[in-house]
Amino acid sequence: MKTTTDERASAAATTGDRPVIPDGATIALDVRSLQKVYRTQDSELEAIRDLTFQVPRGQLVCIVGPSGAGKTTLLRCISGLLESTSGEVLLDDEPVTGPPPGMAVVFQEYGRSLFPWMTVRQNVELPLREKGIGRAERHALVDEALDAVGLGDVPSAYPWQLSGGMQQRVAIARAVAYQPEVLLMDEPFAAVDAQTRADLEDLIRTLWKRLGITVLFVTHDIDESVYLGQRVLVLSNRPTVVIEDVRVDLPDERDQLETRSSRRFTELRGHVYELIQKAKKGYRP
Ligand SMILES: Nc1ncnc2c1ncn2[C@@H]1O[C@H](COP(=O)(O)OP(=O)(O)OP(=O)(O)O)[C@@H](O)[C@H]1O
Questions:
Q1: Fold for domain 27-102+180-281?
Q2: Which residue's CA is minimally distant from atom 23 of ligand 1?
Q3: Cβ neighbours of residue 27 closer than 8 Å, sequence gap 6 or more
């Protein structure tokens, strides 16, 4: 990936000087001085040093960083699946101490996240049952979610009868049907082909806009982070801190061809690329 010095300078000059959080926004997610040290009997590994950021309700934020930076660790702490060493995560001003009811997570390994003995409909319906939603409403939510991801015609299929991209759509439908306030996605498209990936990216933006949910999306892919996000949080290498919080000032309507070939997209992607290169070399602010 090549970027010119002019492009980088231009992106740097215009991403840092405007707020990534609009004035008066309601904060959905508040990550405060989060630290995570993995401890075993004879070793310690500090994955996250100090992360502080806020996500307003309804924002779509992408997180990028070098491999092993601690992105998955961060999502696991935010989702309450992992206890942090210090600091805290607040969802709507309430500390997260276990998986909160208002959160859903979509992981990369769709194959492992779906139950093979359950049909598509049963997989999507399961968390709704656990949430105690009545039968009629459950069915309506499942139908709506499957339609939204373009799987309205295969509710009786089993996951193993579907392609990888379709299985990931089922995982997305399950998260969406649950009507989360915050949706966490950990490299959800890493294992699908490029064309499916583009379709799923557009699907996420469509669902995000339609449902008004707050989305935190971890990806390895710099282009994907700029294409999807309103904001890209760039992380340092381990132990992780935020290097830069980049505002993505692209038009709200995104198009795979038009947006990705626009000058501004190239500038932003160049800027994030440069930050990642610096991160890999050990740069930290
Ligand atoms: N359960 C664990 N016990 C000990 N160390 C762990 C554990 N899970 C992750 N780590 C370490 O913490 C660091 C951060 O891992 P993490 O998976 O969060 O990074 P990542 O940014 O998601 O990586 P990638 O981009 O490669 O997916 C790594 O050095 C990893 O080896």
A1: Rossmann fold (3.40.50)
A2: 68
A3: 21, 54, 55, 56, 57, 93
